[in-house]
Structures
1.
Amino acid sequence: MFTKGAIIFSEPSGYFLFLCAPFLVGYLLILCAEWRRHRLNARFLLFAGATPVAHRLTRAYYLLIIGFLPFALIESWYRWTGTVALWQLAGLAMMVGGTGLRVWALSTLGAAWTMGCLRWPQMPRIRRGPYRWMRHPEYVSRLMDCTGLCLVFNAFLTAGVLVPVMVLLSLKIIRIEAPNVELMREEDVAEPLGDAGFVS
């Protein structure tokens, strides 16, 4: 039933779950594919001489990202109203945008993309793809994903607690990376493999 205001329609939650389920399944499949790509690339980079940086922080960061989905689902279970609001559609758009940004960054870095932070001296600074406008699209895309996920499921408490922690962790990792980033040479090869000497 269509109504005025922010509510788009008010029907059993099956309507919205029917709309969201294919995207959420696809989102989970993308995460699995990213993890597989990360393991392959990390193995190659470690063999090539890369060294882990801020390992505990990055592990906590990605564990927090994984935790968003179950916490959002649990909160949604108690808060679900059977309606779909504009902010939920905005959340879906944020998740699509975040995933797209990350895929763009992955395709730009190629074999050097990982879900961790690895220091590799041979890596030039990349200034193409999303790195032309931002230094850390990985963190931006994850923030878009997780915030969008919370909006989709009306999980405002989850967002209020976990998003600030996520931002703090990403800022700490970036701060650890920063001193060495400025020392990296500019991109001077036809097919570079990384961004600013760090894989993240």
Note: Residues 14-47 form the longest helix (34 residues).
2.
Amino acid sequence: MTKTMVSWLFALAALVALPFSGVVRSQCVIVEKPEELFAAADAVFLGTVLRTEATGIQGSHVVVEFATFRVDRTWKGEAAMELRVGADSRFEKDKEYLVFAAGKPLTTTIQCRWTEPSERAKAKLDWLSKKEFAARAGSAEELEMAAAFRMVLTQLGGGGSMKFVAGSGLIGAARRALGLVRPMIDVGDVPGLAPTGAKGLPAGYFLVYSFAVTGNVAAFEGTAGPVPSGPSALNCGTGYKVELERAVDGWKIVKSYTIRC
């Protein structure tokens, strides 16, 4: 079954390079087991459709549209902030999808449920969540910190398409835990950002200064860009400080500060 699935996806991927005048003759396979679908895919992610581009072709099992996604969570493949995927049906703009895709360029099928709106993909999302923690979590401490960071993200409006930067104070378990939730990049990978502080932090980036969990209390601090650069610029953008406490039903925000200058 797995070979059939892979063959179909690569046939669909190959079609992208053609002038969209033919039809893939092989039929797709609806896969109910997430583990089989995961093994066949090159990319697995949760994302929101930002824009779409029609190919102009019509028919079954052909690429009728490409969608550019804001990637909110990645389980397999490139940890990019945006990905472009072709499909055999049209996507709904601003809607969140769980996407399993393969090939170069990436293609998927909505007709055969390789890609579904997130509200219809609960069983697959539950399976992916369990797989993620089993594969990536290094300790119970990191899992607790990751859960607290997810609550922090609600204070940041979910984080959207922001790129998270690990400051010099974010090391060890704290950095690994945040990396379970969102991709983290180094200060040196951000053009124009000062090696210390936040001067030169571009718009769309969030610099995490510190994050710590002590017992039932957690504290988070960081700054969202843009932050001006230059010798006379203030070392500030939009700063956030969030304090949390662990309750019976999970982490709760008890204090939150936003500082703008």
Note: Residues 1-26 have pLDDT under 50 and may be disordered.
